[in-house]
Design goal:
Layout (H helix, E strand, L loop, with lengths): L1 E4 L4 E6 L6 E7 L2 E10 L3 H14 L4 E5 L3 E8 L15 H22 L1 H17 L8 H9 L13 H19 L4 H7 L6 H12 L3 H5 L3
Parallel strand pairs: 1-5
Antiparallel strand pairs: 2-3, 3-4, 4-6, 5-6
């Protein structure tokens, strides 16, 4: 739809009327967009590819915001849609559980195949990721260690992440995994771990994943 610069738009936060969560919104020419995904400054091509896939192949009304330190993709909404949790960008709890399972499996694969030292380095990378993008309840090292170790399907404490957090996590997890392994060999093992989820929840998560370019990365088709 559009590629915009920071000076072209107004970015603010709106409190969700039901959950109280702060939802990032972008305003441009009397149109409102909610945050879908964030990329770092070195991921210009990935950001453009993600945006182009959503607009050209999936028919979504999206803008790509280019800033010096990051790129972000935003999807058009109507303000009244914020009454609907689904459209607010709030992720279903079992989507977050699935993303945590993928995160843990990459961590375990690094620990098993590359050793404890590399696993420790990976944990530090995850801490930096969560801190950089302000993931709720996940910026402290102790919180990250807990998320890497506790069973997401058994824990009663699932972080209150929105869909843009999951998009960012899965994009960055894929990139970091490739850096550690030098290939995408970790993907199959991680996806296989989703079998522990109830069938209906796993199917819904995979369906959501395949509606975006993330499905191509994680080879869930």
């Amino acid at each position: 739809m559009f590629i915009l610069k920071r000076q072209d738009v107004e970015i603010s936060g709106i409190q969700h009327p039901k959950t109280g969560q702060n939802i990032p919104v972008l305003n441009y020419q009397d149109q409102t967009f909610r945050l879908i995904s964030v990329f770092n400054a070195k991921q210009a091509e990935e950001a453009r590819s993600f945006w182009r896939d959503l607009t050209d192949n999936r028919g979504k009304a999206c803008v790509l915001l280019e800033e010096p330190d990051r790129y972000s993709v935003w999807g058009k909404i109507r303000i009244e849609q914020l009454d609907d949790d689904h459209n607010s960008g709030a992720a279903s709890p079992f989507f977050t559980q699935a993303a945590l399972i993928l995160l843990q499996e990459v961590y375990y694969a690094i620990e098993d195949l590359l050793g404890n030292r590399q696993a420790g380095a990976f944990q530090k990378d995850v801490i930096k990721l969560f801190q950089q993008w302000n993931f709720p309840d996940a910026t402290a090292p102790e919180a990250v260690a807990e998320l890497l170790e506790q069973d997401p399907l058994e824990s009663g404490q699932i972080p209150p992440w929105q869909e843009h957090h999951l998009n960012t996590l899965l994009q960055e997890l894929y990139r970091i995994g490739k850096e550690y392994f030098g290939n995408t060999s970790f993907v199959g093992r991680a996806i296989e771990a989703l079998k522990d989820m109830p069938d209906s929840e796993r199917s819904q998560f995979v369906g959501w994943l395949n509606q975006s370019p993330l499905g191509k990365m994680w080879e869930t088709v």
